Amino acid sequence: MRDYDNINDPVVQRIRAMAERADMLKENGLYFYNRPISELHGVDRVIVDGREMTMFASYSYLGLVGHPRINAAAQAAIEKYGTGTHGVRTLAGSLDLHRELERTIAEFKGTEDAVTFSSGYVTNYSVISALTGRGDYIISDKLNHASIVDGCLMSGAKMLRFRHNDMAHLEARLRQALEANPKAARLVITDAVFSMDGDIIDLPTVAELCRKYDAWLMLDEAHSVGVLGETGRGIEEHFGMEGVVDIKMGTLSKTIPSVGGYVAGRKELVEFLRHASRGYIFSAALPPAQAAAALEAFRVILDEPWRVEKLRTNTKQFISGLQERGFNTLYTETAVVPILCGSDELAFQMTRECQLRNVFALPVVSPAVPHGLARLRATVTAAHEPDEIEYAMDVMAEAAEKLGLFEKLEQILASDARL
To answer: What's the whole-number mean pLDDT along residues 44-59?
Structure first.
């Protein structure tokens, strides 16, 4: 057994450093991660430590968690198939339910076919590394999700980052890749909606540049399906540009209240991934209940379009109301709403004040975001009612006043030119 008292061991040093940081936060009543939720009352209400709180940290943007049709579909799948499959999809784990889900995803995303994976992280990690390799070039937005970054590193391709949503810099990177090796594959990959900032990638310009420099385009729609577009189909519908994205990646664990990930695209692409993607070949199939829940969720989105409209209304109320109260919400246009606090300590203190008054929001601090840009990462859903949103904003504004947040944030931003 490894000696954890050996302070000269570099692995032990890393473990101890993280433990010490977590212990310090716990001792000061500022640790809010991994707290068990004992009950869900709909989507917008949760029981934590015996208290009912309004949930402002949910990824269930359309409020589909606990939907009776989705629950019934999951229960029926267990009755028919049991709780698991016989193994990996390639050998013994494929069910007709999996193929029905994939056909539904393809139809929803306007593509020829789709393939599902065990998680969103596995989807990005394995698809990127299957499509690109040494000698190729991947051009990636600086604020892309960690799963994209890890997939780029795994691929062995040369990763060129461009400044966040900076189209001139993206073009410079594409030109750099083309000039370095005209015969190499070029893949541009970016989030559609950025998970920490809530802003939207400039798809029209990205698509134009990909055509100009003969590059493949892959979009991660984890936070845009159900959020963008008239019917919630995502970023292409939002911009009225159907069919411009080559590789449409998404998750089944946010708007879709299940687990897993997918890629939708041409039949040839999907067939390649079924035979070349390690995350598909060597991971067990989605459990039947989860596949059935995801399948029914796509149907519910189309059958209940009011949810997309209500989310849009709630998002507008939340963003504009926070800004009117003096908060900096960066460039968000979506249900992901950063509430800038500046220092890690202020983000933790804001979280404590909110939760003491039964508003469940959570902090995001360095290194998940740059030092000096710590925030509450709040989310609004179609399940929230206007009075709940108003109450949460009032609580946040009173907490900010109590902590002197706006004055301290102004000092932090003024003292660091990078911010």
So the answer is: 93
Look at 77 and 21; give whichever has higher pLDDT: 77
Kindly state the tokens that stand for 409. Answer: 């944030």
Do residue 316 and residue 388 come from a single domain? yes
User: Cα separation of 274 and 75, whole Å?
Assistant: 28
Say if residue 279 is in the same domain as residue 320.
no
Give the count of domains, the chain. 2
pTM to 2 decimal places: 0.94
Supply the residues annotated as catalytic. Answer: 195, 223, 254
Q: Per residue in 146-191, pLDDT tens?
A: 999 999 999 999 999 999 999 999 999 999 999 999 999 999 999 9
Q: Which two tokens stand for residue 378?
A: 């709040």
Long-range Cβ contacts of 201-204 (<8 Å, 24+ apart): 201/141, 201/165, 201/235, 202/165, 202/167, 203/235, 203/236, 203/238, 203/239, 203/241, 203/244, 203/245, 204/239, 204/241
- 185 with 317, same domain? no
Residues 214 and 97 reside in one and the same domain: yes
Domain that holds residue 284: 68-303
The answer to whether residues 293 and 355 belong to one domain is: no
Confidence of residue 417 (pLDDT cuts 50, 70, 90): low
Q: Are residues 287 and 410 in the same domain?
A: no
